[in-house]
Amino acid sequence: MDKLILIKYGELTTKKANRKIFINMLEKNIKSILKDEKIEIQKDRVRMYIKSYSDIDSVVLKLQKVFGIHGIVVCEKTDNNIESIKNKILEILKTKKFNTFKINSKRADKKYPIHSMELNNIIGGFVLQNFNCTVDVHNPQLIINIEIRLEGTFIYCNEIKGAGGYPVGIQGKGLLMLSGGIDSPVAGYLALKRGVDIDCLYFESPPHTSVEAKNKVLKLASILNEYSGNVRVHVVPFTKIQEEIYKNVRDSYIITIMRRMMYRIASEYCKSHNFKIMINGESIGQVASQTLDSMIVINNVTNLPVIRPVACLDKLEIINLATKIGTYETSILPYEDCCTIFLPKHPVINPVLDKCLFYENSFDYQKLIDEAIKNIEIIDNFKSDYSDIL
To answer: Residue 282's domain spans which residues?
Structure first.
């Protein structure tokens, strides 16, 4: 008779022949997220069971950030004997306060002699005999779930909603262009939810950008890492490129050319490090570089897929997601990144490709790009606390 954490797969169950691959990836990710906890895992095609020797509430909190999980329940296990089931329910309900209830039985073991409806009636009658309560099948205060399986009976009352989506890594690896703003961390979260394992690419321009701005980005990456356990930050030294742009490019085109350089660097880095896609936080029309005409001109420098998870969300929707995932308070800290320090008063919203090529030909950008890529710093060990930037 053990207390277990039962994991429900949700969307993973639609994968038919590939289901085993998805479940194995989910198990791998759970072990990574729970690497500091003492656990045992058993799994099959429809459920995963986790026995925890650590604080079970701490384990459940971490599991809520694991993509690929539809539902999490802390359940009690007993054998399939009807008297054992009654005794276990009696033990569980003595710790509950309720006036109305409902029994919800599922008979995964179809050879079990008592059908679901009959089991509902037997257990419902037993509860009525032992507690001062009534049945309410429409709006009960307490739902008692009973799952009859070959390996035993699992009983639980509360289900915690999981993060949903696909297990991180099942779709391969992508490179997130992470700034210190609100949008790009949300884009990273949504990419993780669809099974993309992400690393982050951050462009810094010291002395124009501060150490606090870099630490702000590292804090955002550490929050995303709670949903993955596998995030690294690749820091690009962007100062020389940005200064050359500022010296050689008309003010209104500075942001467009800067974004084209960032895309070139990200694209080359993806190809040399086996990232399948680039990911960013662009939202259509939100700023000058995110009009459709700007996106076309900026995207012209790469043939890699560029995924924009928040492209069709408005700012309030993005803020709501940022608040939900815990990045908003960090994102609004007042430390400027390299996209804002040289922001012109009137950036072009309908850039012309020929003009971009003309400005870019005025300096040897490829040499600067090669140098920047050569000197990228990789950070994969985040501090436990970035309170120095708060």
So the answer is: 173-389
